[in-house]
Amino acid sequence: MATDRAVSGFQLARPGATSARPSRPGDVDAATSPEETLSEDALLDLSLDLAGHDVEETLTRLDAELIGLANVKERVREIAALLMIDRARRRFGLESSRPTMHMSFTGGPGTGKTTVALRMAHMLHALGYIRKPKVHTVTRDDLVGQFIGHTAPKTKEALAKAAGGVLFIDEAYYLFRPENERDYGQEVIEILLQEMENERANLVVIFAGYPDRMDRFFSANPGLSSRVPHHLEFADYTHGELMSIAELMVAGENFRFDSAARTAFGQYLTARMTRPRFSNARSVRNAIDRARLRQAKRLVELARPLSKSDLVTLCDADIYGSSVFSDAKQDAKQDAKQEVQVAPCPID
Ligand SMILES: Nc1ncnc2c1ncn2[C@@H]1O[C@H](COP(=O)(O)OP(=O)(O)O)[C@@H](O)[C@H]1O
Ligand SMILES: [Mg+2]
């Protein structure tokens, strides 16, 4: 059980003690008994907690692999610190209630909520707070039944799948339909509330969605709101951040932009950001996928032997092929078209 694991995993820093390797929660051969309560004058070295190493690794990766999100990263660090200290306190026999870890992630589409939820699950697992580093994602349709009597079994099934890990409820506000007083969503909320209170359920619930709608959802459900102490806000990315995300994604797939493609992608983003259904980093990923399609077609049509450089390079024509540039309503159209005409793709 998580509470057992939460107290283990530390190496004791005691004068004269040999420094054995740090221990991890669940290690059977940990040098000190994980259950041993420390004496009043013992000193506990947090840096020797291997769970802490896992957490540090997760936080370092979060910093390196996710652009921006400074406030989210800060909140994740705070949550990690809270759990590390909770573990340390238990080693001294200091009982307190298990910290509540239910959260809300508010932000537009493609701002990194699902990605951070996965990292969060790894971190909570490393710290022994949950049994498995898994996120089970659901939306209203996975929880609410069509007919009377169908909702509770559906919700319970979802809870069973998520048990021991994280239940991520995307667009959670759709659970609440005030205009329809007989809506089954209310039943889901009541079942969730019970499960969120149940420590043995070993479950973390994350409610995710657009900020304004989530605010209204929590205001209308104060019981729920009071059980969700951690609110992480995911802002829309700036143009510069989206460019950095694009570079990261392109490099991650062993591609690269040549300099004209980089300029073209900047123009693409400027135009795309003002258009409907813009979804932050997700739109960037989709744009790169489509650029890869155009690159592939361009390379096949070259009908000549290809170099490694051909295969890795996205050039401006691969970007300017986007319909964003051919939309007559877009201001970007004129500039972009001119660029396409004057900037043929380099051959290698
Ligand atoms: N800050 C970021 N840095 C790099 N990639 C990101 C960042 N935020 C999101 N992504 C990527 O964008 C895509 C969409 O992110 P996702 O977490 O699904 O967003 P959301 O759940 O908020 O809609 C994923 O491929 C994710 O890896
Ligand atoms: Mg998502």
From TrEMBL:
InterPro entries: AAA+_ATPase, AAA_lid_6, ATPase_AAA_core, CbxX/CfqX_mono, CbxX/CfxQ, CbxX/CfxQ_RuBisCO_ESX, P-loop_NTPase. The keyword Acetylation does not apply. Keywords: ATP-binding, Nucleotide-binding. The keyword ATP-binding applies. One of its GO terms (molecular function) is ATP hydrolysis activity. Residues 1-36 are annotated as: Disordered. Residues 99-238 form the AAA+ ATPase domain. Belongs to the CbxX/CfxQ family. This is CbbX protein.
